[in-house]
Amino acid sequence: RCLSDWSSDVCSSDLYNCEGYGIHFLVNDNGRQYRHPRESIRGVVALYADLDTEKNHVEPPVWEELPIVPDVVVHSGHGFQIYWILEPPVETPTPEHRTRIEDQLRGIAAALKPWGGDDAFTNINQVPRLPGFRNMKRPGLYGIRPMVQLIRSPQ
Predict the structure, then answer these.
(1) Rounded Cα gap, residues 38 and 29, in angstroms
(2) How many other CB atoms are found less than 10 A from the CB of residue 144?
(3) Which residues contact 104 (CB under 8 A, 6 or more apart)?
(4) DSSP sequence for 101-120
(5) In angstroms, rounded to a whole number, what is the distance separating the alpha carbons of residues 59 and 57?
(6) How far apart are alpha carbons 100 and 49 in whole angstroms?
(7) What pLDDT, on a 0 to 100 scale, did the predictor assign at position 11?
């Protein structure tokens, strides 16, 4: 469902999260459609990568030392999602455009492999966890579901 009334949607999402549901968001633009198949993506607003630091037993990079410093960094409770915002967004009117973007996402994941770069997080229609809600995938320390946290964002 498209977010139309933020206050009621946040309250509903919080209730769903308390009931054990994960809360996710669509990174790229699909014209606010309910479903988000790959073909629905018409604009890319960010390139991104997932760093499975916990699973791979590695420390995250120093963000400022990466060749291109990410605009947004989210701690998922088990790793990090990093985003580079594209200004202006890149239009993806054809399957070839979408494939080219996914090739770039795979290249980013490969370059970040030393920090747990995950090549499964390279779909143009990716739906990562939304900061401010609990990661319901698996418990963290002491069996507590970790909070997804925004740790870096544009000023």
Answers:
(1) 11
(2) 10
(3) 47
(4) HHHHHHHHHHHTGGGTB-TT
(5) 7
(6) 16
(7) 66
pTM comes to: 0.86
Both tokens assigned to 24: 């996710």
- Report residue 143: phi and psi, to 5°: 75, 10
Q: Which amino acid is at 88?
A: P
Query: What number of other Cβ atoms are within 10 A of residue 94's Cβ?
Result: 9
Q: What is the pLDDT of residues 17-45, one digit of tens each?
A: 777 778 888 999 998 888 888 999 999 99
Closest CA to 44 of 93, 107, 79, 9: 93
Name the residue type at position 30. Answer: N
| Cβ atoms 73, 82 nearer than 8 A | yes
